[in-house]
Amino acid sequence: MRSPSLAGIHAAAEKIASILPETPLLPLEVHGVTVWCKAEVLQPVGAFKIRGAWHRLSDLSPEEAAKGVVGVSSGNHAQGVAWAARRLGIPAIIVMPNDAPKVKLEATAAMGATIVTYDRPGGEDRDEAAARVLAQTGGTLVHAYADPWVIEGQGTAGLALSAQMEQWAGGAPTRIVTPCGGGGLAAGLALACPEAEIVPVEPEGWDDVARSLASGTIQKVGADAPATLCDALQTPATREINFAVLKERCQSGLWVSPSEVAEAQRLAFRQLRLVVEPGGAAALAAVLAGKAPVDGRTAVMLTGGNTDAEAFAKVLAG
Amino acid sequence: MRSPSLAGIHAAAEKIASILPETPLLPLEVHGVTVWCKAEVLQPVGAFKIRGAWHRLSDLSPEEAAKGVVGVSSGNHAQGVAWAARRLGIPAIIVMPNDAPKVKLEATAAMGATIVTYDRPGGEDRDEAAARVLAQTGGTLVHAYADPWVIEGQGTAGLALSAQMEQWAGGAPTRIVTPCGGGGLAAGLALACPEAEIVPVEPEGWDDVARSLASGTIQKVGADAPATLCDALQTPATREINFAVLKERCQSGLWVSPSEVAEAQRLAFRQLRLVVEPGGAAALAAVLAGKAPVDGRTAVMLTGGNTDAEAFAKVLAG
Question: Which domain holds residue B26?
């Protein structure tokens, strides 16, 4: 597999600029400092994943496109792939866990993708489920994070962020705090913003990237990992293509508790008027809890906003 | 009082461009058509009111600025004035109803404004309350809508909207559906977008502008007007400076029911990941309910997103 590159990010950005309006950068005062929130929840599918999916799918050959694509995702990557596939006229099959948020399952189906579920709570392996589909269709797997196109596509958020912060914050970011699942976005941001420290944030008990950074080799999530509302960050382990970038560019990783995440969701509701899903609020949670250092050149990624109404109402109730 | 002008809107836009990042234009599929939502809820104070306030306050003479400003508002104009005043170092007193949403009262106070409340449910007159304050301070009244600077400032949203729709919708808007209280924004949009039909939308029972348009003369809200959650649109009547523009440019006005408003808030939550307050969702409610005609060149203003968590949770619960 080829390595993702800054040149690839620029190529992706050029394609994306003509199809997706740029998401805004919103200032937010936290602990007396203004940090800069990149509102990727405002993408048409409610998450940054549309960037990588568009870059990957629009680079398929006509032969590959005819056989379709297969995505594996709890919902945000799923919607990104489904959105790009519909626009490009490519058949899409999405392998989703049967406990994915309803809003994500419904939106993915509404975009015309075929959904195949697997039993996540029952321990069914998602890669095996995807492999079965791929064997049948001969299609192309669009991995949610271990894919050079996907990493480059997500990196376009970093290019945009830098340009926006140069205009409004007096300079490109020197630190980017970001939710981290498999590390696709984190690696893309690292490549796009070579001057910035990248701070990946994971949910409590799912801090495999933090432990990987600490040990220098890829670690897996423990079999005893607790349930988490951060479904978008529920990845068992990062992969070499991501970790090769992350281990060079991240000093260490952070984790946040469910109550810290909920607090961040409430702050985004009140101060930014944004709906942010638990996983999408992880970076803001780390900032708010004082776990991530901040200054006026710190960017905070708000990565996704697909959450069920009942779940969000519960968060608002505190 | 001078009349608001297109030249004034351009002057305001130039000032605002250096201080406020432009709010995004978000596509939304409704009834099989893509309409374009102007997300003014993403302004730093959560509402478009910051535009008019900035234009007005930044044009005060040093003598006027020293005596301070007085605003009258249930909260969004209040925050706009308070935000601009803090940035410009101008003392601000805001006259607010004692039943304003908590989130609006707190945010206005947090920005350093002095708050004077009046008893709205008890029938106390807000203009009299403001007059008392003005008599004491000799300050400048910044009216929430009957002011040429305020109208011009709000009109900058129309200039931005036109530019954004030219890029993404294939042309400037031919119709703008907008929430309407006193008519400051509606008049500003009309002046900024001379090719567009302006469709003002009011809450049920507060449709004084619709009745004014129908009769050709300014009508007041009835004394028996029902309670409404659209506090931002609870204005007793429009004024001549606004109506002079509106009667030339609006064919008719629309009104929406509380359940139509709540439905629009839920759609914005789910499809746009935006928090929109009841009054801010009135235009989307009219579109969703099929009351306002739509096509691919229709813009929908989402004007404010300041709502209490408990109230929003109730809306989500349906």
Answer: 6-48+148-317
